[in-house]
């Protein structure tokens, strides 16, 4: 299944129907319902799906966005499954279960999750990303910043991974009962969960309960460019447990561009994609409609130009 995420054209002022109409106009036959949609927009989208002839490939946690109060965080981390505050962790579990219900409601197979973050007052990964974005820093400076990030992460991760496991022990039986797969997504920042090794650890614990790996091309490519783990290593380690992909372009370490734009050659990794995998274009608003149409056409043809 080849889909387009509502991340591309989300706007709080648009109706859910309008968001889907614009995606249908690209020529897409399927959509991923993203993590910004409000309950109202979700209801409007659900009503429009049959008339527009769109299938839902997957749902991205949290969908709908939690409606129990504002958050100053990025919507994808509205609540964290890794939270040390028990009240927040329980809310993250609750709203993940709501997202599982959303997937059932729209006939999707998979809920894509962000597993959490190792929270730090002065996140050292921000400095690492800044150095890389500048493009002027020397390689030793970048390597030194990376070592600092990974050392601090290793020392601090224990309680956050414990919280993730507690959360998943509540989420996974609920999802399994409803025949929904939980897709564990590759992350962007080094302090996010899971890293490359932790993907394997969590799949080993929860795979039999219906967890699979969701590979994000952009995030994996950025991890490769930061020197954390190679893109191919992600794909080769977890290929047999892979359920789907987020596909987008990358320039430097800026991701979520239109596929086949930027300086990331998607054709080098597309051979890993199989027909059984769900494929979602997760570009953001900077991607033009023409670029998205071109991406849909090329991806349908296996990447051929």
Q: Give the full name of the CATH homologous superfamily of the largest domain.
A: Divalent-metal-dependent TIM barrel enzymes
Q: What is the N-to-C succession of helices and strands?
A: EHEHEHEEHHHEEHEHHEEEEH
Strand content: 15-25%
> How many separate domains?
2
Overall shape? globular
How many helix segments? 10
Task: Please tell me the CATH architecture of the largest domain by its name.
Answer: Alpha-Beta Barrel
Averaged pLDDT: 93
The order of strands across the largest sheet is 1-2-3-4-6-8-9-12
Query: For the report, how would you describe the main beta sheet?
Result: 8 strands, parallel, barrel
The top-level CATH class of the largest domain is Alpha Beta
Question: Structural class, please?
Answer: alpha/beta
Query: How far do the termini sit from each other?
Result: 20 Å
> What is the fold-level CATH name, i.e. the topology of the largest domain?
TIM Barrel
Explain this structure to me?
By secondary structure, this protein is α/β, with parallel strands linked by helices. The chain contains ten helices and twelve strands. It has an eight-stranded parallel β-barrel, surrounded by eight helices. A two-stranded antiparallel sheet has the order 5-7. Strand 1, helix 1 and strand 2 form a beta-alpha-beta unit. The protein is globular, with a radius of gyration of 18 Å. The two termini are 20 Å apart. The mean pLDDT is 93.
């Amino acid at each position: 299944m080849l889909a387009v995420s509502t991340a591309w054209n989300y706007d709080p002022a648009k109706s859910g129907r309008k968001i889907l109409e614009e995606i249908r106009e690209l020529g897409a036959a399927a959509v991923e319902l993203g993590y910004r949609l409000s309950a109202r927009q979700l209801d409007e989208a659900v009503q429009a799906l049959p008339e527009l002839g769109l299938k839902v490939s997957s749902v991205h946690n949290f969908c709908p966005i939690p409606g129990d109060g504002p958050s100053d965080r990025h919507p994808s981390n509205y609540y964290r499954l890794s939270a040390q505050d028990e009240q927040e962790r329980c809310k993250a579990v609750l709203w993940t279960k709501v997202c599982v219900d959303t997937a059932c409601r729209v006939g999707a197979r998979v809920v894509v999750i962000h597993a959490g973050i190792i929270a730090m007052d002065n996140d050292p990964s921000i400095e690492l990303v800044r150095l890389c974005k500048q493009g002027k820093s020397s390689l030793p400076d970048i390597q030194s910043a990376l070592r600092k990030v990974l050392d601090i992460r290793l020392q601090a991760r224990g309680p956050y991974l414990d919280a993730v496991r507690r959360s998943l022990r509540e989420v996974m039986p609920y999802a399994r009962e409803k025949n929904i797969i939980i897709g564990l997504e590759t992350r962007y920042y080094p302090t996010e969960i899971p890293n490359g090794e932790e993907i394997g650890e969590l799949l080993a614990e929860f795979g039999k309960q219906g967890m699979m790996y969701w590979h994000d091309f952009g995030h994996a490519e950025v991890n490769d460019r930061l020197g954390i783990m190679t893109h191919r290593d992600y794909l080769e380690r977890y290929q047999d447990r892979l359920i789907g992909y987020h596909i987008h372009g990358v320039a430097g370490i800026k991701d979520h561009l239109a596929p086949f734009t930027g300086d990331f050659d998607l054709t080098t990794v597309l051979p890993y994609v199989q027909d059984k995998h769900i494929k979602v274009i997760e570009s953001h608003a900077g991607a033009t409609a023409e670029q998205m149409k071109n991406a849909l056409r090329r991806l349908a043809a296996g990447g051929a130009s």
